[in-house]
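fyi for ur records
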Amino acid sequence: MRKISKVTAMQRYAAECGRSGTRVALVPTMGCLHAGHMSLVHKARKQVGPGGRVVVSIYVNPTQFAANEDLDAYPRTLDRDLADCRAAGVDVVFMPSDSSMYPDRERGGYSTYVNEENLSASMEGGSRPTHFRGVTTVVAKLFNIVRPDVAIFGAKDWQQAAIIRRMVRDLNMAVKITVAPTVREADGLAMSSRNANLSPAERAQADVLYRSLRAARAAVRAAGSVSAAKLRSGIRRVFKTAPLAKLDYVEFFHPDTLEPVRTVSSGTRMALAARFSRARLIDNERL
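which gave:
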């Protein structure tokens, strides 16, 4: 397994793969890897085969964090991450520095960003207005540096995946986007690097997100269709059973356009976010 930290070195490697016709799959991460990330790595290997190259990027991207968010507290476990990547058969780990990804940003010398203006307006974009500008910018940069044939994202970040797909379509990027299923803990909590920042008491209540998804799905199955307003009221009642969790938002929307719906039926997607003392968690599921 190769470890590459310089952008120019990664670009040279990508160019070599291009010249030899070697397929490349990229798994973009911010580190603190878990079984969910490893499922993306395995998906990447299947996409490019044993003769292809799987690249995992580990980079805590500062531009997707607002000033009051958890950039400094975001868990970092690089040594363990490298060991997990090696064990999973990753070919390259790309670990760029802030200065190489955003030259002179601290002095105002970096000024180019990628904006998606429709899909990013709601849900995570509503709660974190600058978040997706940072996401689309760093992913576009990674695509330009790594030159992957395919990139693998997780369904837990459904809105993010939809935005990346739109960016790829709108900007004519030559990369296939694959979305892999959410991997969950035994109690249903979606695996997330931020789970490491939950206290034991918070962890015991964090399954409230999954229980909310299950409650909404059961209501839709029983009635066939339910008003979004009625489901939101039900979700708020579920959250009263987890006082350490503060509901940020809950939305019901079309899975492709992300347009909100007033009446929820089979096939509608639900997303929600909850805040704990040192962690903010998200989840979503098809109802």
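The radius of gyration is 19 Å. thats all i got for now
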